[in-house]
Amino acid sequence: MEEKINKKMDKKKIILFVVITYAIAWIFMIPTSLYYRGHQDATGTMVFRIGAMAGMFAPLLGALIVNKGLRGMGWVPKIKGNVKWIFWAILVAAVSIVGGAALFYAIFPDLFDTTGSYIISTGKSAGIDIVAELESKGLSLSTYFIIQAIAAFTYGPLINVFFTIGEEAGWRGFLYPELRKGFGRIPAWIIGGSIWSVFHFPLIVIAGYEYGFDYIGAPLLGLLVFTLSCIIMGLLHEIIYDKTKCIWFPAFLHGVINAAAGLALFFWNVNSDGKAEKYMIFGPAANGIVGMIPMAIIAVIMAVIVIKGNKSKSGQ
């Protein structure tokens, strides 16, 4: 048995938090997703990103309103004694994303492409000739990838943290600890991850967020797979928060994952007669069925370590 938690869970507060958070987020997400659905160009992409980023602060606002403040979340950065968790976050993201992509491309080798077709295609949709832009700066596609990879694991997360904190203050700062009071740790991971996932559903269904529109089993399978990935990621975010007692650490982990997520798509073969779109539910991103396997393994290992540690502390 996991350690008992004495404080009583406030169900009404949780429900109110979820309702307020979804309402605020979807006010931004739904209209901008609909706009993007009809304008898949540079302007549409910009509008969609603005809506998605604005929605990221909804959990923070939900916690602020329901909890009448944000105290007790660990807002003062606690670097001393927690440096190892910074490297842990980087390592977890690197192994999950690189490992997931490698596994996916090993299973689907015909979707692996070293010509940068995905990057070039993305640039064209935004009216930009990526190759010409890079050449004008004396860069090649391979050099560009190396620069992006370095940024993803260094300064990229530090920039992202000022956006991801909007989610983490709500999910890990308020929701997960509240759920643990009534359900314990494992159910809190499952319930909390599911709530976090549904938060993104309008983006997935309307705008094709993460998996596009033409993948196998769309859109239901995408919602189920994304929910599983949120449970896995939420578990890791909750553990780093519990270990550091500082909300900036899960925000950093979130920031690393967001910064590095696009690296797997650099080798995505868009010239595959529709197969790329069809199989995107499997990967190469770390929220695909195959792509999430390394992260899932890490999550299971961490969960076992934490649960065994709790049993040892309780003397069981």
Verbal overview:
The protein has helices at 11-38, 42-55, 58-67, 83-107, 117-125, 130-136, 141-152, 155-183, 185-198, 201-207, 220-244, 248-260, 275-278, 293-314. With 316 residues, it is mainly α. The N and C termini lie close together (8 Å).
What does the overall shape look like? globular
Overall helicity: 55-70%
Count the E strands: 0
Mean pLDDT, to the nearest integer, reads 93
Strand content: under 5%
| SSE class | mainly alpha
Order of helices and strands: HHHHHHHHHHHHHH
Between the first and last Cα atoms, what is the distance in angstroms?
Answer: 8 Å
Radius of gyration, whole Å: 20 Å
Q: Which regions have little confidence, pLDDT < 50, spanning 5+ residues?
A: 1-6
Biggest sheet descriptor: none
Oligomer: single chain
Q: Helix count, per DSSP?
A: 14
Brief synopsis:
This protein is mainly α and 316 residues long. The chain is built from 14 helices and no strands. The protein has helices at 11-38, 42-55, 58-67, 83-107, 117-125, 130-136, 141-152, 155-183, 185-198, 201-207, 220-244, 248-260, 275-278, 293-314.
Features:
mainly alpha; 316 residues; 0% strand; globular
SSE order and pairing:
Layout: H1 11-38, H2 42-55, H3 58-67, H4 83-107, H5 117-125, H6 130-136, H7 141-152, H8 155-183, H9 185-198, H10 201-207, H11 220-244, H12 248-260, H13 275-278, H14 293-314
